[in-house]
Specification:
Layout lengths: L6 E6 L6 H13 L2 E7 L10 H11 L7 E6 L3 H7 L4 E6 L2 H17 L4 E6 L9 H9 L10 H11 L11
Parallel strand pairs: 1-2, 1-4, 2-3, 4-5
The structure holds adenosine-5'-diphosphate (ADP).
Length: 173
C-alpha cells in the first residue's frame, strides 16, 4: 500500500497490550510512515502495570523488524499530545458497537478541540474481537489460561503479578 508522509498516534491504556493491540499496530505500520504507540500515564485509573512497565512490555513484544513503530507515553489532553508529535492522525481500534458508541463522542470532542487532528479507526480482526485487557486480567486472576490472547511473555508477567498465589488484588481497569 502506498504511504503518504503520515504519523499516526495510537493511544491506550495497554494494561497489558494484547494480541488485538499488536494486530492493530502491525496493520497500521503497513499504512502509515510512522506509528506512535502512546501509553497513557497512570493517573486516577488503577493499572496492574506501571507506565514504565507497559512501555517495556510493548518494547518486548514488538517484532524486531518493525522499525516505524515508536513507543511513547502521554498525559494530559490527547489532542495536544498528538499535535506535539506533528501527527495528524489519532488511531483507535473498533471491536463492536460498544466501542463505537464511546469512540464517536470522543472523536467528535477531540475534533472540536483540534480540527487538524483526524481520528481514524481500524476494525479488529474477527478472531481477536473478543479480547480486552480487563477480561484477560480477570481470567489470569482466576487462574485461567490466556494463551492465544496475549504473547507468552505477557501471560508470564500477568501470572507473576496477579495470578493465584500473588499478592495483588488489582484486576480492574
Ligand atoms: P483505552 O483505555 O484507551 O480504551 P485500551 O488499552 O483498552 O485503552 O485500548 C486501546 C485501543 O485499542 C482502543 O482504541 C481499543 O478500542 C483498541 N483495542 C482494544 N482491544 C482491541 C482488540 N482486541 N482489537 C483491536 N483493537 C483493540
Amino acid at each position: 500500500m502506498a504511504k503518504k508522509n503520515t504519523v499516526a498516534v495510537y493511544p491506550g491504556s495497554f494494561d497489558p497490550p494484547t494480541l488485538g493491540h499488536l494486530n492493530l499496530v502491525t496493520r497500521a505500520a503497513e499504512i502509515f510512515n510512522e506509528v506512535v504507540v502512546a501509553v497513557a500515564e497512570s493517573t486516577s485509573k488503577r493499572y496492574v502495570f506501571s507506565t514504565e512497565e507497559r512501555v517495556e512490555l510493548w518494547r518486548k513484544i514488538l517484532p524486531k523488524g518493525m522499525k516505524n513503530v515508536k513507543i511513547d507515553t502521554f498525559s494530559g489532553l490527547l489532542v495536544d499530545y498528538v499535535a506535539s508529535k506533528n501527527a495528524g492522525i489519532l488511531l483507535r481500534g473498533l471491536r463492536n458497537g460498544i466501542d463505537f458508541e464511546y469512540e464517536i463522542s470522543m472523536a467528535q470532542t477531540n475534533r472540536s478541540m483540534n480540527p487538524d487532528v483526524e481520528t481514524l479507526f481500524i476494525m479488529t480482526e474477527g478472531h481477536l474481537a473478543h479480547l480486552s485487557s480487563s477480561l484477560i486480567k480477570e481470567i489470569v486472576y482466576l487462574g485461567g489460561s490466556v494463551k492465544g490472547m496475549v504473547p507468552p511473555l505477557i501471560e508470564r508477567e500477568l501470572k507473576k503479578r496477579i495470578g493465584p498465589g500473588s499478592q495483588s488484588e488489582v484486576i480492574k481497569d
